[in-house]
Specification:
Helix content: 40-55%
Number of strands: 6
Largest sheet: 6 strands, antiparallel
Structural class: alpha+beta
């Protein structure tokens, strides 16, 4: 009898192993395609600038409720605020966002500036938030970058509300979502997500000073008539179901370190050659 015997041959028949191989390769191909797609994140994050609006399309009960009530796909928004990220922050190469939400839904991410888990106004390194949000993320960029004066006002406003660390604005979030605008008194020290984004762009002078930020819902940022000429054409940053960005960021950092070391070695070799001459 040949090595392996009848049972071995039955279990590892050519047809069986061919199917196993085909399944493995199909899975690897799918994973590699998905990972390659989201490698674009490293490049595209460099396009994000202070004041750009990030809009999220999710599938949670909260998202569905907001979509049903407002008629928009967007269930959450945040604003880019790289100007608040310290030079010595370990994630300085990434993007900082400011947002307001009520619950982390069991996947808490500590505030990037205060190093504590918050409810309400909070700042986050973008990739860390994206890794715990099973959402599509769209970018509504400012049509023109903030001027130095606008950036100063924008940053001052966000620093102030971040330091106040107020809870989520439940009192006005529910009425405006349900179209009960008369229940929204106006600006307070508390914010819901789109209220915070609108208020920050008001502080920068990009939205009208008489705008009631408490009446702004996430979907408004996709409407041209909401702020004509303020925001440019939207584009997608990541798609729901993306691979872990943590792995991608880690690999990118290692690649950058390797390139830096190579440059140093090249420079040292050049210096050695000069000394030999």
């Amino acid at each position: 009898m040949e090595n392996g015997g009848l049972i071995h041959d039955k279990i590892t028949s050519t047809e069986f192993e061919q199917q196993v191989y085909a399944n493995i390769m199909a899975r690897r191909l799918k994973e590699s395609e998905r990972f390659a797609e989201f490698q674009d994140y490293v490049h595209n994050r460099g396009k994000l600038k202070d004041g750009d609006v990030l809009a999220f399309v999710g599938d949670s009960i909260t998202d569905k409720t907001i979509k049903l009530a407002t008629g928009s796909d967007y269930g959450h928004v945040a604003v880019v605020c790289n100007c608040l990220l310290p030079e010595d922050h370990p994630n300085k190469e990434d993007v900082l966002i400011m947002e307001s939400f009520a619950s982390h839904h069991g996947r808490p991410v500590p505030d990037a500036l205060a190093d504590e888990v918050r409810s309400g106004t909070q700042a986050h390194v973008l990739w860390k938030r994206l890794d715990v949000m099973p959402d599509d993320c769209w970018v509504h960029p400012l049509a023109e970058p903030l001027t130095p004066a606008e950036l100063s006002s924008f940053g001052d406003f966000l620093r102030q509300i971040h330091a106040e660390a107020q809870e989520y604005d439940y009192k006005q979030a529910y009425p405006v979502t349900l179209g009960l605008n008369d229940e929204c008194a106006g600006a307070t020290s508390k914010f819901f997500c789109s209220e915070l984004v609108a208020a920050s762009l008001k502080a920068a002078g990009r939205l009208a000073g008489d705008l009631n930020a408490s009446l702004v819902v996430p979907g408004d940022f996709s409407q041209e008539e909401f702020a004509p000429g303020v925001l440019g054409e939207r584009w997608r940053l990541v798609q729901a179901g993306h691979p872990s960005l943590e792995r991608l960021i880690s690999d990118t950092r290692k690649d950058a370190e390797i390139e830096m070391l190579r440059a140093q070695v090249k420079e040292l070799k050049h210096e050695i050659e000069l000394l030999r001459e």
